[in-house]
Amino acid sequence: MKHTTVHDCRIIDIRKFTDNRGYLSVIEGGMDIPFEIKRIYYLYMVPEAARGAHAHKQLQQLLIATSGSVDITLDDGREKKTFHLDRPWKGLLVVPGLWRDLDNFSGGTVLMCLASEHYEAEDYIRNYNDFLNYKKS
Ligand code: T46
Q1: In this structure, which residue's CA is closest to atom 25 in ligand 1?
Q2: Going by C-beta distance under 8 Å and a sequence separation of 6 or more, which residues neighbour residue 122?
Q3: Bridge-partner residues for 31, per DSSP?
Q4: Is 2 helix (H, G, I), strand (E, B) or coil?
């Protein structure tokens, strides 16, 4: 997981069903995304401040702005790539081993994360120099 790059991440189109009652989107773990979903969490009522500023060693994620919009900048230690999430049917598949910064949350944004693992504090790298050393090791 140390050798992943920003090019391993991509936006996926989430299946949606539309009729005169509106939209319904669905994601099935292991089918629409390459992992089983063990945990769901979401960020909301985020003020101006940025969030993130860490990397995960093992965690795979699908990030979806179910309402509002946010910029997610991924960094593999060599290259950075920013993804703008602003539709509930677009998901950003994030592989492990990447630093991420979340900013430019619009008012009312809800950012949902489907995660491949249960919460483990040890899976986080929260210091940028430690992250760079991890990528080089
Ligand atoms: C990520 C971005 C998008 C828990 O106790 N259990 C959990 O499952 C999570 C996700 C967090 N927490 C606790 C740990 C901290 O005391 O919630 C507090 C805030 O978490 P954190 O500072 O990690 O929040 P963000 O917004 O920087 O990062 C979160 C996720 O942790 C992270 O996986 O990719 O959202």
Answers
A1: 52
A2: none
A3: none
A4: coil
